[in-house]
Amino acid sequence: MGESIRQQKYGRLIQKELSDIFLYDKKGMIGKSFVSIVEVKMSPDLSLARVYISMMLAKDKKEVLKRLDLHKREIRKALGDKIRNQARIIPELAFFIDEVEEKAQRMDELIRNLHIPPAEDAS
After folding, report:
1. How confident is the model at residue 123 (pLDDT cuts 50, 70, 90)?
2. pLDDT value for 23
3. Is the pLDDT of residue 90 over 60?
4. Mean pLDDT, range 97-103, rounded to an integer
5. If you write DSSP's letter for every residue of 73-123 in order, what string do you get?
6. Structure confidence at residue 6 (pLDDT)
7. Domain 5-112, CATH among 3.40.190.10, 3.30.300.20, 3.40.50.20, 3.40.630.30
8. How far is CA 56 from CA 20, 39, 60, 100, 110, in A?
9. Cα–Cα distance, 19 to 38 (Å, whole number)
10. What whole-number distance in Å separates Cα of residue 60 and Cα of residue 64?
11. Alpha-carbon distances of 42 from 12, 28, 69, rounded to whole Å
């Protein structure tokens, strides 16, 4: 079963505000990495936000994820400061690496490198 409209709207709000927090990262929580938020999935009671992030240019994705987990409280506090007038619940944050784009690029490369001989004429 899919997410409710309420979950989707709240997820988009969280996604927008977290993007702003990461864009203007004044405390150096994510270092010099370029992080973009692909999707935010909310639990039915809106208490947990599963944040899927893409790190196309990051060399060590696990390290960036570890930094995000270390600064989770600060990120949640900054999120609370931004959405406190719009939302009653400030969700707990869980960060995950979104690898869909990397897998798609890998598939494109595999398809480009296929050697398919031309079909023989059946006549």
Report:
1. low
2. 85
3. yes
4. 77
5. HHHHHHHHHHHTTT-S---EEEEEE--HHHHHHHHHHHHHT---PPPPP--
6. 92
7. 3.30.300.20
8. 18, 15, 10, 11, 19
9. 10
10. 7
11. 10, 26, 18
Torsional sign, CA 103, 108, 112, 116:
positive
For residue 82 the two structure tokens come to 């931004």
Q: Tokens representing 83?
A: 């959405």
In angstroms, the CA 22 to CA 34 distance is 9
**Integer Cα distance of 101 and 107 in angstroms:** 10
At 63, list the tokens: 């390290």
What are the CA-CA distances from residue 35 to residues 59, 101, 116, 118 (Å)? 12, 13, 38, 43
Cβ proximity of 53 and 19 under 8 Å:
no
